[in-house]
Design brief:
single chain, 2 domains, five-stranded mixed sheet, three-stranded antiparallel sheet, globular
Length: 245
C-alpha cells in the first residue's frame, strides 16, 4: 500500500513504504488512502482561532524535507499513518505571537511542524494524535502513580513554552531520570511526558538505543516504558525497530 505525500510545488512525490522508493504519483483511487504534506505557507492553513497568534515562513530546503519525510514514514506501517494523519503542514520558523519558536503542534489529525529537527517533531506530534484518539486504552492512573503523590505536572506544553517551569532551574537530567522523566519538558503535562517518550523511542535508531539505556537504569522510567509498550500493542503500533516487549 502506498502513502501519497502531496507537496504544493506543482509536483507531487510519493514514497513506497515497502522499499522506500520514490516514484511519480499515479492517479488516486478511492481505495488509496493518503495524507498530505503541505509546504506552501499560508495563514489559512491554521485553524481560524490560531491565525492571530501563529506565524511562520515558507520553507526553502526541499531536499532536507524529502529526506526527513522518507525517514519518518519508513518506520511505520502505512495503515497506521493513514489512520492518524490527515495533513502535515511544514513551516519554517514556526512561532507564536510573542516570537517564541517551537517545534510543532496538532489540531485534530493535522500536524503543524517546524522544519527544524523535523523528524523528531513529527514523531512527537503524531504521538499526541494517537494518544488523544485512544485515551480509553492508555493506563493513565498507573502512569500517574509512578510519578508519586508529591508530583503534579506544571500545566501544559504551551504553558511551558510561554512561561517555562518553576522547577526548571537546578534540576539535572540524572535527577529528572530518577524521578521518571526523560527531560524537563516531560514534566509539563502527561501528554508531553508520553510524547517525549515516543519521540525519543522513534526518532532514529541511535537515539532509541541511548534512550533505552537511560530507561533501563531508572526504575520509574522502566515502569513507564512497560505501560507505554502495552499501549502500543493495544493500538496496533508496530515499527521497523525491534519489538518493544
Amino acid at each position: 500500500m502506498r502513502i501519497y505525500l502531496n507537496f504544493c510545488l506543482f509536483s507531487t512525490l510519493c514514497f513506497l513504504i515497502s522499499n522506500s522508493a520514490c516514484q511519480k504519483e499515479e492517479n488516486n483511487t478511492d481505495s488509496q488512502e493518503s495524507f498530505n504534506v503541505i509546504t506552501t505557507y499560508s495563514k489559512s492553513n491554521f485553524p481560524l482561532i490560531w491565525r492571530p497568534v501563529m506565524f511562520g515562513n515558507q520553507i526553502d530546503d526541499y531536499n532536507d524535507l524529502t529526506y526527513n519525510m522518507e525517514v519518518f514514514i519508513s518506520i511505520y506501517e502505512p495503515n497506521f499513518l493513514n489512520k492518524y494523519i490527515d495533513n502535515i503542514y511544514v513551516i519554517k520558523d514556526l512561532r507564536n505571537v510573542l516570537g517564541q519558536e517551537f517545534g510543532g503542534t496538532v489540531n485534530n489529525k493535522n500536524i503543524y511542524a517546524n522544519d527544524f529537527n523535523l523528524n523528531s517533531v513529527l514523531h512527537h506530534e503524531l504521538s499526541h494524535i494517537y494518544h488523544n484518539e485512544n485515551k480509553e486504552l492508555f493506563p493513565e492512573e498507573e502512569w500517574l502513580q509512578i510519578n508519586g503523590n508529591n508530583f503534579s505536572y506544571s500545566g501544559s506544553g504551551m504553558q511551558y513554552i510561554l512561561f517555562g517551569s518553576e522547577s526548571e532551574n537546578g534540576i539535572s537530567l540524572d535527577s529528572l531520570h530518577s524521578l521518571g522523566f526523560l527531560n524537563q519538558y516531560s514534566t509539563s503535562s502527561i501528554d508531553e511526558d508520553i510524547a517525549v517518550f515516543c519521540e525519543m523511542l522513534h526518532s532514529d535508531y541511535q537515539k532509541r538505543q541511548e534512550t533505552l539505556e537511560i530507561i533501563n537504569s531508572n526504575q520509574k522510567l522502566k515502569q513507564k516504558y512497560s505501560l507505554l509498550s502495552e499501549f502500543f500493542l493495544r493500538i496496533g503500533l508496530k515499527t521497523s525497530f525491534t519489538s518493544f516487549k
